[in-house]
Amino acid sequence: MKKALIAISIIATTVNITAQTTEAEKVLKTQGKDTLDGWTTGGIISLNLTQVSLTNWSAGGENSLSVNGILSLFANLKKGNSTWDNSLDLSYGLLQQGDADVRKTDDKIDFTSKYGQKAFKNWYYAGLVNFKSQMTAGYNYPDDSTEISTFLAPGYVLGAIGMDYKPSEVFSLFISPITMKMTIVNDQTLADAGAFGVESAEYDDSGNLTKNGLTTRSEYGGYLRALFKKDIMKNVNLQTKLELFTNYTEEPTHVDVNWEVLIAMKVNKFISATISTQLLYDHDIDIAVDTDGDGVIDAAGPRTQFKEVLGIGLSYKF
């Protein structure tokens, strides 16, 4: 009888422990599922400063001071089968060299908002809105009196509907066969000149203005956006984005390209180095150049644009 009671006690204890374990597993699984839902936010802020001061320097040179700031933020929401991803990238840079006036070296506004509803596996039905522009006027130095760009000149607004592939938290691929892209040139002087692909002004034989240039231009086509963001090694974060757009109605073989890369390398909690690059090609933007080096602009046409910014300074990732 005593042995039977001991056996029953052991069985009861085992069942109780198993039940508690199973219940605990259910709670953990529920908590794990819940933690996937909700907001995920973060970003990188970086401020880089370079200063050169020369006094009686026999090798020559000029005093200079440059500052460049980068702010990259994201706020993503996941709720059930729905996702809402938002990102904002800002950058601005200034340079003062010698006795010359302060010049702009970097200027970017880039905001994207994307909403998706799960279709199957890692695919989502999705819609995307993107806005790009700059903050202040730009000049073709050394000419610092004629503006060649400013806020909303150009400005780009893009709306797209398609499918979003998200196999992981570090990569996404958005493909849209239905896309509207609007170019804004909110400066009449630039619009009259037909800058950034808008329809230019019309003049009579005497040179009198008969019709103002249009300040907007709409295009309809296909769009692709690939995004990769990951710590590729300890204290090194890589973010890269590739955007492609083709206009169905006007030269669909001409593909607009925007490829951006940002690498942030941390030395310690606050000191870091950042490298950012941007490659652009837009067939509607004419770039004026001096082909023979005589100081005279004698050619204009679409060209590949490239920008690279290297900085060492204060940085914080959150």
Structure, described:
With 318 residues, this protein is mainly beta. The chain folds into two domains: 1-36; 40-317, Beta Barrel (Outer membrane phospholipase (ompla), Chain C). The chain has two helices and 18 strands. It has a twelve-stranded antiparallel beta barrel.
Topology:
Layout: H1 2-36, E1 38-52, E2 64-79, E3 82-97, E4 103-120, E5 123-133, E6 138-139, E7 147-149, E8 155-165, E9 171-184, H2 188-192, E10 202-203, E11 209-211, E12 216-233, E13 236-247, E14 255-266, E15 271-281, E16 287-289, E17 299-301, E18 305-317
Antiparallel strand pairs: 1-2, 1-18, 2-3, 3-4, 4-5, 5-8, 6-7, 8-9, 9-12, 10-11, 12-13, 13-14, 14-15, 15-18, 16-17
In short:
This protein has 318 residues and is mainly beta. It has helices at residues 2-36, 188-192; strands spanning 38-52, 64-79, 82-97, 103-120, 123-133, 138-139, 147-149, 155-165, 171-184, 202-203, 209-211, 216-233, 236-247, 255-266, 271-281, 287-289, 299-301, 305-317.
